[in-house]
């Protein structure tokens, strides 16, 4: 009587199904500050999304979920946070000058965005002004637009006027990146006009026109250099252009030399001395330092000393990029941070802070290594590391997928009858985490590899292997119950079926 074994599965399953799981991602992870005018309000989309659609929520940096305040603040169903326009009397630090973050959640886990500082700028009265200047003919005159400190961060000089005519940067008139007006090779006629600056508020759009100022000229007289434009500190983001002003009046015309950190500035294509000072293209972190501008002529000398700070955006990267393991295994993650040597690093799982414990270790000089033992199925999800320095932050995340790693036989050979000398190939398609090993037996005895019995395997996916037993020149003694046994640290499973070899005729 033929023995029919129970076949666990006759269908080959899609071994890449785990790659079709739901996912999370960031749409615009660079949003870290939103400044808006109280007269206009603002709308801030949550910079995270996912497939299938995610649930989006907004929180204060303290972790308190925010709620709707009719007419003041509203979270739309699509996750956009709206703060409505408001009168100055309704200003609230809690709502209008605070740090928020949002979360995106779906079956694959939950991620939180970087901190987003949302700040309302109130409309307030202010004036800009220009002071009269003196200059010798043939020298340089510098007019500056003086802006109140309370609004200076929001005001941009958009133009200068000579009487009522807008000035355009050219051979003798230059408008610097900091909004100053340079008049080069001053002539008598330059003293006949009124000069004023025009500014625009970056958020309210309001424009202001300064008072009129005059330029008073004198004949050239021998004199030592006097600084008329300089700097004490400048900050710039890496990759941008920066201008370090250094200009002096004097007769004869002063000469200039630049030093960085006490050493003469080395020739470099990115550095250029101009009428206004030193221009640095494509600033690099290595350009950070103390700059000295030496000015001299035959009657004396002067100097400008200032510090340049070239800042980089923080960047965080978690490795490994793909984490799939089995229940009970260990998972180790590392977070590499660039852009600053000083920062605070925190780890999160599904939006919640991870704290060290019996099975959780956080190590490294900056807490950059996370190791977790005995992972449970519920420990899967989105893992994030956050690096923070002041109001700057950076994050990265990976999805940790934990599976029941118990071996499974997805498909296998079936009972058959074969003729003598026929070639027989038996296959077991098995899956498990870690990758299972497969052994073959015939009537409970191990199959011995020889010229007629060859065993091999082919990896067809992560944790998935096809194991072959090929029998050539089949004989009656090769008949019997064949069993493939699939084994890993998570368990063992086997499958068996009978192969019958017919007696040779005659």
Tell me what the structure shows.
This protein is mainly beta and 506 residues long. The strands form 13 sheets. Strands 2, 5, 8, 9 and 10 form a 5-stranded mixed beta sheet that branches. A 5-stranded mixed beta sheet has the order 21-29-28-24-25, with no helix packed on it. A 5-stranded mixed beta sheet has the order 31-38-37-33-34, with no helix packed on it. The longest helix has 4 residues, at 93-96. The relative contact order is 0.11. The model is unreliable at 1-21 (pLDDT under 50).
Task: Show unreliable segments.
Answer: 1-21
User: Beta-sheet strand percentage?
Assistant: over 45%
- Binned, the helix content reads under 10%
Mean pLDDT: 89
Shape summary: elongated
Rg over C-alpha atoms, rounded to the nearest angstrom = 37 Å
Number of strands: 47
Please tally the helical runs, counting DSSP H or I stretches of 4 or more residues: 1
Largest sheet: 5 strands, mixed
Distance between the termini: 23 Å
Secondary structure class reads mainly beta
